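Objective 1.3, modelling of assemblies. Example input:
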Amino acid sequence: MFKKGVLRELFDSMFDKSWPMWVGGILLALMNILLFVIKYPWGSSSGYTNIGQNLFQILGVTSLGTKVPISLHAVALLNIFVVVGAFVSSLFSREFGIRIAPVGELVKGFVGGALMAIGATVGAGCTTGGFFTGLAALSAGALTLAAGFMIGTFIALRYLLWEMEALPKISMGKSFTFLTGSGKKTGWQRWLGWIMIAVVLFLFNTYTASSSGAMKIIGWHVMIGLILGMILQRSRYCIVRAFREPFMTGEATAPVAVMLSILIAMIGFTVIKYFGVGNAGELASRAIEMKAVYANFWLRALIGGIIFGLGMTIAGGCAVGTLWRAGEGHVKLWMAALGFVIMAPLSKGFIVPAVKKMLPESMQKQMFLPDVLGYTGAVVLVLLILLLWYMFAKWNEKTGKFSAL
Amino acid sequence: MQADQNLDCKGLSCPMPIIKLAKTIKKMNSGEVLEMLGTDPGSKTDIPAWCEKTGNFFLEQSEEAGTFKFYIKKK
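Predicted structure (tokens):
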């Protein structure tokens, strides 16, 4: 496509090989800090919910619908452009291909997505908004959410291993692959990638040309979504792996990458919260401090986390992992996204109110760790937890004590 | 390359190929070679990493029209 030269070399160095996951971890943390500065740190499940509500609105089920169109919902757009970014990056790296898994796998994708929707709405957060962002934002609920992910992932992994023995037919059968990018005649893939980038630039320009601040913010979500999607696809960044791998192969690569992300994001978030970056007034600083601190400590997050952990392990991708794999062309993850989108408004409408009513206030508290421990205490606590997690992952990598494979 | 066993993971995405690979290798005899097919780009790094972790020998990898072919020898 280019004459062999420095530009081609640069392009190849970015798209010929996958990046180490920890590189993705660092870059994602930086993007997350940018999102916080612009408006609100990274989350994903509320975007799925909005897309689902729009779907119900179109179908005439207004009780589950919304008046906020996707084109004005920052998180929904962020999700969509993560898919686009992963699509572009997989085109550039010749890894795109529509891969239709056997029917049983597609069903697992859908069910996994629906479970993630229930878990994310009940637990008030997914692996990204509730855990990665939540922990970096010093929200206490992120801790019990993580405990829930661990339990859910462990159970679902046992299920997958059992399924392999007892019902091997689920993951066997006809599969199809189309439009793959290897071989020589795939120049069109890279051209399509460039066209997609031009489309995103056009949209970015259209949004940011508006005089409204809200529209400018949305425009930036379009752009950052594209960048996030590319980083995610290149580094194959996966929070499911961070929770699953210790119980499966024992590898510590993914847990360490996620820890690094949280660590860096926490430094950025803490500075933003401490100084109330973005606003000067006292009330406004408090509002900034409480960003990404969810009313889910402790049992509410634990229950949601378990359900979400089950779902993400069966689907093979968390909320964000589903997005970038969908962009790469895995139809199983298209089904997971569909399950998530359909189930989220239903769960929000029927399941969440019941759970909120059932649980006492003390089990669904909005707890900002620095309110209890001070900023220093809160940061030290999170550092200690990350350190313990690191030691466990590394020890288990050597001994394989908890690994099934 | 001559293979003693075949494993088709086309269309499957993470973590199914690794789970199937582990299960198949378990049932093979030491020194036997497995030919594995897959379409998940993640397999390109996952399978060599798994082999290194478990001590099995990753022999060869090739790609044709989006389908990856791996040869693995059981330790």
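Chain B touches chain A at residues 10-16, 18-20, 22-23, 39-42, 44-45, 49-50, 53-54, 63-67 (CB under 8 Å).
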